[in-house]
Amino acid sequence: MSAFEYSSNLGATNQEPQQDPASAAYGTVPAAPSLHGIPPGLEYLAQVDQILIHQKRHSWIQYNSQYEILNTMGQKVYFAEEQREWCGPRLDVGITNNSGVTVVHLLLPTDCCSYDMELQVHSPPLGTLIGYVSKNWEAFKSTFYIMNPAKEVVMKIVGPGWNRKAFSDVKFEVTTPDESFLVGQIIRTWRGMSKEMFSSNDHFSVQFPLDLDVKVKAVLMAACLFIDYLYYDQRRNENN
């Protein structure tokens, strides 16, 4: 077993943790207690088997993406914001908790001589690498590798092929490296024709086993943002 642990019991139901009424009134989750072996700020992920990611573009001309990361009750867990700089990284996203503290940092470095698509995922303490998301160039389908800090492949994300159905949810399957077991899913939700035509915001759900290593859950969360960047944001920016 690699440094990342995973389970194939996808679909097991899990009750959301009890919320503090004051926190629920404001639509946010309370701070989770510190847990041994879990990077600070990621403790809440240990309690859930699904998160929702809602893009928050306020107009078609907004250049940087923002996201609310929610539990299944719609309460905000994290906020993600893309940073854009001239000659800066191709992708630079900070994920903060409800206190505004950065808990995950996504970085796709600039390399003018390379087409490598290897996203770095960091967590506290500052600069601690917890994994990578690597785009794998394959004909007729989208695939990504989820890797630990030693660049060992621990999971694979297999996207839809060219024959996927239009006007429906788009599913990216999270599997074991050999694709023999389904571990989870990243789903871009089809919101209906009118919303898809007149709103630039994407909605995703990320599903994983409850007992999955929290660092892997964070890397899968990062993978969802990476997928949005590669397949949806860039197309929108090209069309504007």
From TrEMBL:
Its cofactor is Ca(2+). It comes from the Eukaryota. One of its GO terms (cellular component) is plasma membrane. GO terms for molecular function: phospholipid scramblase activity. Residues 1-26 are annotated as: Disordered. It holds the Pfam family Scramblase. Keywords: Calcium, Lipoprotein, Palmitate. Residues 1-21 have a biased composition (Polar residues). InterPro entries: Scramblase, Tubby-like_C. May mediate accelerated ATP-independent bidirectional transbilayer migration of phospholipids upon binding calcium ions that results in a loss of phospholipid asymmetry in the plasma membrane. Belongs to the phospholipid scramblase family. This is Phospholipid scramblase. The gene is LOC117350780.
